[in-house]
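Handout, section B. The chain below has 208 residues.
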Amino acid sequence: MSGSALILPVLALVTGVISAHLIPRLPSIFMSRFSFFNAQLPPHPAPVPVEGDLLARVLLMRNLRMLGLMLALMPMALGLMAVMGAHSPFGVGLILGSGWTIMSWLLPEDLTSHRRWPCSLSIAERLQMLRNDSADEEKRCCKAPEPHWEVANVRCAACLKVLLDIPRPDLGRKRSDGWLLGSFRVWLLDGRSPLYFHPAVLDSGEEE
């Protein structure tokens, strides 16, 4: 088979992989950006106060990820039908892209820190515990704590003490870098903070 004859099958395979990789992430990339979802949050990339609105947003992003997990089954099913019916390279790509997403999202968190969800129930619980500590005179970091989730960690705006060493993931706000570039970055990072891939964060074993 000549090289030119391989171009179309390879393009079909790559297109299938990219399509199946993108489809499960569409809810997290687009659905949370509407104005009525972001009325209570400061604009991106400003720090976010650790309040009820932030906890609700973390849980919303978690639910959108779960919706994306269900959407991943659609290209998987289409790919299987395409492969069984026509031995389609595009179908193989759909299977590979959706299969990788399903496996990477469903791996238990204690197996590897590289597969943890950007917004999880455990993160919401840790933020709520921080809120409780800030209201406790014996546990608060200062007299008038103002915990905010910055890019690199959760820090008190009053005394500047780092309260949680967790890089802030994408929270579904309208991106300051624009719709197209912002969406591409969210897709490329899978909703994680760019700091998540820093060696110090990976070695620490902390969740995002």
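Note. The longest strand covers residues 147-149. Compare this with the example in section A.
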